[in-house]
């Protein structure tokens, strides 16, 4: 089990005793720890420091800590087992999150719904149809072959490898496996590398389908909390050392959902922790080519020791999710092993779509020179609309990617997801991005829709928030009394 020391917890809690009126110290302390759990900054199933140790670190009496832990236990935010101390937990009713599946295009009454649960832009229409025409012209050359390409079409592997090389990561076509998207790529890696029960280190929050894929592989996600403005390098290093994960999965480039971009120093520090422990690392670069400020970052694989980096990428966000084409870049020997696994799953990606993506990657810079300014404008529209509609929310402006990670200031995410459906909007609640219900104060909002639609959505979100703000949903009776 993971653990957190008294001093580290005291640091995370920060100024817990300020500005809290006359409420007793143990309630304020319990409230501060509960907020860390709800925000995902204190992962679930982490052993809390002993009472004496925390009392010393916070310079309070041991009775205060004992009473705070008791309160956390009775409200479901901590649990104790004989002999293993007190660990962080969540009340059972916090885990269920969304009113409807994000994959359903209709509201509860069957009406159309505005989908803000997915973060994927529309296709670049003209470039896409031109690429399909070019691909159709090339198709006759493919027809005499059997059409199965376990590794991917050679011309597509070549353009993907060339793009990595141009970004500073020398790559041969033999190091590329074409997949049906990045999600498929990650699932293939999990199938090959992990056994049931293995630990997989993840950023926390992270991309929800990655968490689901880890669980489907019967592996165990090990969440490492992200800070407001970057990676918590101490926590990252400690998690790698303490849990010896079989695999790490990181999204250092315009991270989904926080939008964070790992700095050179952060990349170096994470790589050195992973390198020391010889941890195979999946770097998910799905969003890397969407900088809205500055340049495309250097591939994180350039910082990792050779043989440890498995980079996955996709055409879904730069081009279109409907293409279902992605890739894995790794050492050639690993690519061959992954291809062998793939044979038992789906054998090959469709030839025509691979030809299309090869065409599109050749003109990707032109496509992005239109796409990025448009995304920049949409980001500003959504930020401005939210500033007006929900002025108390805290929302960072991400340097790239597709989403805003909004802090509503109160743990209302699940209620907001349900309320927004009544206003015709489907949202992705914060808990979708964490393990077991953390991030209840957060919502992820994509700026992938046209500006006028985003204005409309922002206004509806403001109305939904007022509606639930006016009548806060009943929490458990005790919680309301204690944490109001
Ligand atoms: C970080 C990340 N990885 C992977 C994916 C899935 O990509 P694909 O459509 O290529 O499967 C997404 C889609 O949102 C994503 O944000």
UniProtKB/TrEMBL annotation:
Pfam families: Aminotran_1_2 (PF00155), GntR (PF00392). Residues 81-104 are annotated as: Disordered. SUPFAM superfamilies: PLP-dependent transferases (SSF53383), Winged helix' DNA-binding domain (SSF46785). Gene3D superfamilies: Type I PLP-dependent aspartate aminotransferase-like (Major domain) (3.40.640.10), Winged helix-like DNA-binding domain superfamily/Winged helix DNA-binding domain (1.10.10.10). InterPro entries: Aminotransferase_I/II_large, HTH_trans_reg/aminotransferase, PyrdxlP-dep_Trfase, PyrdxlP-dep_Trfase_major, Tscrpt_reg_HTH_GntR, WH-like_DNA-bd_sf, WH_DNA-bd_sf. Residues 23-91 form the HTH gntR-type domain. One of its GO terms (molecular function) is DNA binding. CDD domains: AAT_like (cd00609), WHTH_GntR (cd07377). SMART domains: HTH_GNTR (SM00345). Keywords: Aminotransferase, DNA-binding, Pyridoxal phosphate, Transcription, Transcription regulation, Transferase. The keyword Disulfide bond does not apply. The keyword Glycoprotein does not apply. In the C-terminal section; belongs to the class-I pyridoxal-phosphate-dependent aminotransferase family. This is Aminotransferase class I/II-fold pyridoxal phosphate-dependent enzyme. It comes from Phytoactinopolyspora mesophila.
